[in-house]
């Protein structure tokens, strides 16, 4: 689990060479609730499918920041990782990703984890 | 098991599957890419997405940008750097985009509950296919109706060394190294488009042509395309055919004249074979279930509802005998077929007056008949051809040719000067032609054209 763009990139680099899946969500408050309602829906769906990831995979759960940071069109996630929405579940280094409501569907999540 | 099984996940197959699924049917799509002799393969989406229209247009654009950079100095842009092109950067960016399209189709099929198998499908008995995946695992599936949408693959020359040393368009768009000095064999639009953008990227390109350019296209336009490419650095060797490719050190091609004993020999970095494409119909068990194909070209004859001689088997796309090999045609045929089968529709695909564009360095857009075809159909005396050279305004400042861009319309004198052929050679020909295609569908005549006021300053006016 990481928070912010820098931490995400450092962690991804550390696991270079292994399949990396990342779920990007809005920050959580003191009670553990995200400001992003779709992220609240998606997280349990994604976590339930984690066992389908290939051997040697790494799963990075990344909190992107608060709502204001996310809304800024120039934030690093938008600019460098080309994220367009949260939640986003992606296979790092490939064009394969699921965005927003796509993350609610267990079979799509499973497809992302098992597709080669 | 299924209402509909479609063999082939390209433009036609995917369009048909999504439409049928939207109409509530249980659909399966099989897509499998047999690797090229060099081992190249690709994902879901068919030729257009992976090794056709999409990467072609992007590489054409890369070449056009090179030309634009040259023009830019005349427009006042000043920079010191000498501009060079990096092949690997371009290929990576294009392949990334294609990868997102492959993934997009996977998600799309999943969301519409279409079953997708990355397996090679073949008929083993009526209504039943055998599906073999990459690992050799076999499954069997049955359906009430089948659609063949297997498309085509590049043809090789059948000469020593062709498969070992030469590449085709299947390999070009993901080539991990810059092709360098290239020989393109063929005079199809694939050959000319590829030769065109490779030259535009700064490479040394030669095109070897057996006889004419762009067979089947208007020959006046074809020759103009060739002439333009020649003045812009593409070398043409006409009336020669390769007889051998070997690799004594570098890649060497030996060719013979079609008109005499003359022999030609030269070394290249890359030889790209683009002499034609063959339908993938020979090894899918069609003979087992009695589907007739045209033995000469392997294509499938169908009636005007895309039905083969076997009532529960239909076919769409490039494999159709006597029909146009174009993505939008396949998509339209696929969608309408699904609607006729499951949606109670009776609309058939209209193959008349389909517009096309060849994306050579100077683009060629057309809709309707070539001049030769129109003469054949109506007789020379019954036709009036109106034509004009034009000089795009954007070409004036950089001093580009003023005698090159050309447009003509062929009109039927006995039908109110109805436009039966529209041809334009110039920048953005595809964008220009699309609108005229709609006008032709509405029965465009010379008079209507004369009454339509132009948009100034444009090429289209």
From TrEMBL, chain A:
SUPFAM superfamilies cross-referenced by the UniProt entry: Thioredoxin-like (SSF52833)
Annotated Gene Ontology cellular component terms: cytosol
InterPro entries: Thioredoxin-like_sf, TXNDC17-like, TXNDC17_dom
Pfam families from the UniProt entry: TXD17-like_Trx
CDD domains named among the record's database cross-references: TRP14_like
Major location (coarse): cytoplasm
Cellular compartments annotated: Cytoplasm
Domain of life: Eukaryota
Keyword Lipid biosynthesis: no
GO terms for MF: protein-disulfide reductase [NAD(P)H] activity
Alphabetically ordered keywords of this record: Cytoplasm, Disulfide bond, Redox-active center
Domain named Thioredoxin: residues: 2-115
Family under the similarity heading: Belongs to the thioredoxin family.
Protein name: Thioredoxin domain-containing protein 17
Source organism per UniProt: Calypte anna
TrEMBL record, chain B:
Residues given in the record as FAD binding sites: 57, 121, 318
Domain FAD/NAD(P)-binding span(s) in chain numbering: 2-334
GO MF term (any one): glutathione-disulfide reductase (NADPH) activity
UniProt keyword terms in alphabetical order: Disulfide bond, FAD, Flavoprotein, NAD, NADP, Nucleotide-binding, Oxidoreductase, Redox-active center, Selenocysteine
A GO biological process held by the record: glutathione metabolic process
Enzyme class, broadest EC rank: oxidoreductase
This enzyme's EC code(s): 1.8.1.9
Gene Ontology CC annotations of this record: cytosol; mitochondrion
Positions that bind NAD(+): 186-193, 276
Family annotation (SUPFAM superfamilies): FAD/NAD(P)-binding domain, FAD/NAD-linked reductases, dimerisation (C-terminal) domain
Active site: 456 (proton acceptor)
Residue span, Pyridine nucleotide-disulphide oxidoreductase dimerisation domain: 354-461
Disulfide bridges in this chain: 48-53
Bound cofactor: record note: Binds 1 FAD per subunit.
Cofactor(s) the protein needs: FAD
Family: Belongs to the class-I pyridine nucleotide-disulfide oxidoreductase family.
NCBIfam families: TGR
Name of the protein in question: thioredoxin-disulfide reductase (NADPH)
Species of provenance: Calypte anna
